[in-house]
Design a protein that fits this description.
Number of domains: 2
Largest sheet: none
Mean pLDDT: 93
Shape: globular
Structural class: mainly alpha
Low-confidence stretches: none
Length: 310
């Protein structure tokens, strides 16, 4: 990335590292919010460093692939304003798609699950990176290149939107103005996304714009009666292990593939949603949510029946 882009990224990111996160840590300590623990915060930055190291190693590969496809790109004659605006929209849309796939396909969930593994939710959680994502993330940029956008501009825009994505990892801000939350991802939306509560699973996939979730049916409001519980539906056996925190789902996949089952079921353990099993012994998110909705409907019916008899 050229020096001009690097200077902009530094101007945007340094306040987050040097000012905003320390302020939230101090406020959390002063008011007794207990948003942070030293161990989880250290793990967040450790995973971020791992991700950054792999990203640096593969950046040349990613750029080479994008440059290769750029020779087949459509001519882009947009004015500078519309060029950057359309690039932002395409980048955010394809991030939503990547994020959706990461949650709905177990092979990719095995990469992304690391980001969701923290039982805490604070600004440093934004640095709990999906360590292995640089191996395939750039492939989602290929359609954007084919639309005539320059590879370096794509990588720059992704870095900018990622910076915004860090800022919504907070419990310090409860709600933002209604008009803002109709369009943009807000902390309340992202708290839902990181929660393990059944109605919140696989919701609010957007990075900057929440409109994609509203359009594609993955939006969920934060409910007053459903306080988010952060982390995974099944807590990790070794939550602080420096290797297993990255590889635990891969180990579970290998264990499932060793079962005496046909190749169709083996593919199911790779490409079906997390929780899928060949014998139905474990539920997927959709199955959990259907059961939760049925139970909620039954409770409401009982409550209404009780009211009507008074």
């Amino acid at each position: 990335m050229n020096g001009y882009y690097q200077h902009i990224l530094l101007l945007v990111s340094i306040p987050i590292y040097g000012i905003i996160i320390p302020i939230e840590i101090l406020l959390s300590h002063f008011y007794g919010w207990k948003f942070y623990s030293w161990r989880q915060t250290a793990i967040n930055f450790y995973l971020n460093l791992l991700n950054a190291g792999i990203d640096i190693l593969l950046r040349g590969v990613a750029l080479a692939v994008l440059i290769f496809f750029s020779q087949y790109a459509l001519a882009n004659t947009l004015s500078p304003v519309f060029y950057w605006l359309f690039l932002f929209l395409m980048e955010d849309l394809f991030f939503w798609l990547e994020h959706f796939v990461d949650h709905r396909v177990r092979l990719f969930w095995a990469v992304h699950v690391t980001h969701h593994s923290s039982p805490e939710f604070n600004l440093s959680t934004g640095f709990r990176s999906s360590v292995l994502m640089p191996f395939y993330r750039y492939l989602y940029f290929v359609p954007i290149v084919l639309l005539g956008f320059r590879p370096m501009d794509i990588l720059f825009m992704y870095a900018i939107t990622q910076t915004y994505g860090i800022l919504v990892h907070t419990q310090s801000i409860k709600r933002l103005p209604r008009w803002f939350e109709l369009i943009f991802v807000a902390p309340a939306h992202h708290r839902v996304h990181h929660a393990s509560n059944v109605p919140y699973l696989d919701k609010n996939m957007g990075m900057v714009l929440i409109v994609w979730d509203r359009v594609f049916g993955t939006f969920q409001e934060e409910l007053e009666e459903e306080v988010p519980v952060f982390g995974l539906t099944k807590p990790l056996e070794h939550p602080n292990h420096p290797v297993k925190i990255v590889t635990h789902e891969w180990q579970a996949i290998v264990k499932d593939l060793k079962k005496g089952i046909g190749w169709r079921n083996k593919l199911g353990y790779l490409f079906r949603p997390p929780g899928w099993s060949h014998d139905g012994s474990s539920p997927t998110t959709k199955q959990l949510q259907r059961a939760w909705n049925a139970d909620k409907k039954a409770r409401n019916t009982e409550a209404n029946d009780g009211t009507s008899t008074l």
